[in-house]
């Protein structure tokens, strides 16, 4: 997709559904389609359709029925499949634990920062033979964040704008010492999936924002039981209903024709590629065409 000046973008909205969100209701012309990528298969087929005329692409992050754990997700294939499907804007929906008293279960947080503590995942599309460094100083798209916040408030949902999501490797939940450490770092919520997803979306020049849906207080709270899957699943059900309403509200807004993103997420690769054309591995270049073709074509 081109983002030259004065060209109006017709957005395609990508939705990545987390725990408890394995389908999207109300899509017209819906069709599940498998998408192959240079990085292998995504978590599942993607659901293509339209909502109020806006093209949407939905992917259940863990696959339908939740067979894939956070560390085994093929994050590169998931983001590449979105890019190959023309997605310009991703809304990520995620279950998280709360690290702050004022963010109770049921609360939605439109986060604005991450701390990435994952260590067993492929984190970049680039590598030997084609090196690039994008900025993730502000890893979430504030333009989408504005729409999410306004729509959530309009629906009367309990929502906080801003907050840091610490991404842990999992699959076990945190120790009490870890949970308290994350609190001492000022983190708002803890989860296992949004990294490297957000970094890869940035490399793919896709605007990306997250609605972190609180399901539990993790294990830091004195006198309260530590989080269990039973607790998470229970709260997830009511969160999922609110998430569906929020999705219905944001898609018509995000789907309007627009200029390139004012925050620049869709131009992240502009000055990011380090490897001189003559030093590039042709196989890497060919593999990366779907992600970085926009900039590789001209350098
Ligand atoms: C049963 S809670 C653990 C699971 O839920 C979250 O995933 P997602 O972001 O896809 O909703 C969390 O990070 C864990 O993967
Ligand atoms: N407490 C928690 N820790 C990590 N991931 C979570 N997802 C939902 N609750 C969580």
TrEMBL record:
<dbReference type="GO" id="GO:0017061">
    <property type="term" value="F:S-methyl-5-thioadenosine phosphorylase activity"/>
</dbReference>
<keyword id="KW-0660">Purine salvage</keyword>
<comment type="subunit">
    <text>Homohexamer. Dimer of a homotrimer.</text>
</comment>
<keyword id="KW-0808">Transferase</keyword>
<comment type="function">
    <text>Catalyzes the reversible phosphorylation of S-methyl-5'-thioadenosine (MTA) to adenine and 5-methylthioribose-1-phosphate. Involved in the breakdown of MTA, a major by-product of polyamine biosynthesis. Responsible for the first step in the methionine salvage pathway after MTA has been generated from S-adenosylmethionine. Has broad substrate specificity with 6-aminopurine nucleosides as preferred substrates.</text>
</comment>
<dbReference type="GO" id="GO:0005829">
    <property type="term" value="C:cytosol"/>
</dbReference>
<dbReference type="InterPro" id="IPR018099">
    <property type="entry name" value="Purine_phosphorylase-2_CS"/>
</dbReference>
<comment type="pathway">
    <text>Amino-acid biosynthesis; L-methionine biosynthesis via salvage pathway; S-methyl-5-thio-alpha-D-ribose 1-phosphate from S-methyl-5'-thioadenosine (phosphorylase route): step 1/1.</text>
</comment>
<dbReference type="InterPro" id="IPR000845">
    <property type="entry name" value="Nucleoside_phosphorylase_d"/>
</dbReference>
<dbReference type="GO" id="GO:0019509">
    <property type="term" value="P:L-methionine salvage from methylthioadenosine"/>
</dbReference>
<feature type="binding site">
    <location>
        <begin position="216"/>
        <end position="218"/>
    </location>
    <ligand>
        <name>substrate</name>
    </ligand>
</feature>
<feature type="binding site">
    <location>
        <position position="193"/>
    </location>
    <ligand>
        <name>phosphate</name>
    </ligand>
</feature>
<feature type="binding site">
    <location>
        <begin position="61"/>
        <end position="62"/>
    </location>
    <ligand>
        <name>phosphate</name>
    </ligand>
</feature>
<feature type="site" description="Important for substrate specificity">
    <location>
        <position position="229"/>
    </location>
</feature>
<protein>
    <recommendedName>
        <fullName>S-methyl-5'-thioadenosine phosphorylase</fullName>
        <ecNumber>2.4.2.28</ecNumber>
    </recommendedName>
</protein>
<feature type="binding site">
    <location>
        <begin position="94"/>
        <end position="95"/>
    </location>
    <ligand>
        <name>phosphate</name>
    </ligand>
</feature>
<feature type="domain" description="Nucleoside phosphorylase">
    <location>
        <begin position="13"/>
        <end position="251"/>
    </location>
</feature>
<comment type="similarity">
    <text>Belongs to the PNP/MTAP phosphorylase family. MTAP subfamily.</text>
</comment>
<dbReference type="GO" id="GO:0006166">
    <property type="term" value="P:purine ribonucleoside salvage"/>
</dbReference>
<dbReference type="InterPro" id="IPR035994">
    <property type="entry name" value="Nucleoside_phosphorylase_sf"/>
</dbReference>
<dbReference type="InterPro" id="IPR010044">
    <property type="entry name" value="MTAP"/>
</dbReference>
<feature type="binding site">
    <location>
        <position position="192"/>
    </location>
    <ligand>
        <name>substrate</name>
    </ligand>
</feature>
<dbReference type="Pfam" id="PF01048">
    <property type="entry name" value="PNP_UDP_1"/>
</dbReference>
<keyword id="KW-0328">Glycosyltransferase</keyword>
<feature type="site" description="Important for substrate specificity">
    <location>
        <position position="174"/>
    </location>
</feature>
<feature type="binding site">
    <location>
        <position position="19"/>
    </location>
    <ligand>
        <name>phosphate</name>
    </ligand>
</feature>
């Amino acid at each position: 997709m081109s983002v030259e000046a004065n060209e109006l973008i017709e957005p395609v909205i990508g939705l990545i559904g987390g725990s408890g969100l394995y389908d999207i209701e109300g899509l017209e012309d819906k069709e599940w389609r498998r998408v192959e990528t240079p990085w292998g298969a995504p978590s599942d087929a993607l659901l293509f359709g339209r909502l109020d005329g806006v093209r949407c692409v939905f992917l259940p992050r863990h696959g339908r029925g939740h067979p894939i754990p956070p560390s085994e997700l093929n994050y590169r294939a998931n983001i590449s499949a979105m890019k190959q499907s023309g997605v310009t804007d991703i809304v990520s929906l995620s279950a998280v634990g709360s690290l702050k008293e004022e963010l109770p279960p049921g609360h939605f947080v439109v986060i604005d920062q991450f701390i990435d503590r994952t260590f067993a995942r492929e984190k970049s599309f680039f590598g030997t033979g084609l090196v690039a460094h994008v900025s993730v100083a502000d890893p979430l798209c504030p333009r989408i964040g504005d729409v999410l916040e306004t729509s959530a408030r309009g629906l009367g949902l309990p929502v906080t704008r801003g907050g840091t999501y610490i991404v842990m490797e999992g699959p076990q939940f945190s120790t009490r010492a870890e949970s308290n450490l994350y609190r001492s770092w000022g983190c708002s919520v803890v989860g296992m999936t949004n990294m490297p997803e957000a970094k890869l979306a940035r490399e793919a020049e896709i605007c990306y924002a997250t609605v972190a849906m609180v399901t539990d207080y993790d294990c830091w709270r004195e006198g309260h039981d530590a989080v269990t899957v039973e607790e998470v699943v229970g709260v997830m059900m009511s969160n999922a209903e609110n998430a569906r309403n929020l999705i219905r509200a944001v898609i018509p807004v995000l789907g309007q024709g627009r200029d390139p993103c004012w925050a620049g997420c869709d131009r992240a690769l502009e000055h990011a590629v380090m490897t001189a054309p003559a030093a590039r591995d042709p196989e890497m270049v060919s593999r990366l065409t779907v992600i970085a073709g926009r900039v590789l074509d001209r350098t």
